[in-house]
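Bit of a strange request maybe. I'm writing a small parser for structure token strings and I need a real example to test against, not something I typed by hand. Could someone generate the tokens for this chain?
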Amino acid sequence: MRTTRTLLMGTAGAAVLAAAMLVPQSATGSPAPHERPVHRAALPVNGFERPAAGGPYPQSAWAEDGWTAPWALGMDDRTLVDATTPAHSGDQSLRVMYPKGRIGPEDSGAQAPFTLSKSREYYLSYWVRFSEDFSWGTTEYAGKVGLGLAGGASCSGGQVCDGTNGFSSRLIWRLDSGQAAVYYYSMGHEGEYGDYAVLTKDGTDIHWPKGQSVNIVQRVKVNTVSDGTARPDGEIEVFYNGASAAKVTGLRFVTNDDQVDKAYFSSFAGGATTEFAPQNDSYIWYDDLKVSTRRNDICELNGCA
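Reply from user aminoacidic:
Good idea to test on real output. This should exercise your parser:
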């Protein structure tokens, strides 16, 4: 069953799209499901134990740790390898800054579309910790959290997803309470911008906590294609601290051979206007990133601490 609501993300979302379109994509027809390659390798876990704490974690450092991207925003000037705040594991984690009064990926947070081998299904896991005084906004409240999964031309930013220009699925905060949700673009999204599904536990909405680490795992499964027609069998599922917190089924993402091919770091405040801007400098720490085509590689779904 598909249960969604529509969220307006405005020009900041458009900036995401413009950046995503810097990565050329092509499609040459849709192989039958049994012909699609099966990918088994997981990217290395990134625990940010190098380089030494106190400096930024630029695009080149990501590449040294096995995470390559054709471009990046904010990694040079709004990230810090931090050893002063408790990490989920080890001694260090990645701190990302969301400056007071700033919105959008040019001036807030960080972005980079990390390249994955194409596969119909991926799992993406990371630990996230909001600062004690994190500001959800001024009079409007929304922003993107950490990494998501995307494919093809990463349809987003108010674009109509037509089955040939990709798809995207990312985590967000919304409302002045920091409500947690998954925000995604698929074919036939309900409004001008993407759809969202609120994360819940035992029927109650989840709100991002401040000052403590929580785990997020996102699973995206791309629909199958028959004679150029998208079958409604795509799925998105989000796990919060190991338990399923949102599941959207019946999705159509593509009519071509696009599959998941990006672990998309896409995190910033906003929102289209400065009403979405933080009222004070705010921070999110990220730790223990991992991505795989196999559920068993994500120990957070199999009992690890």
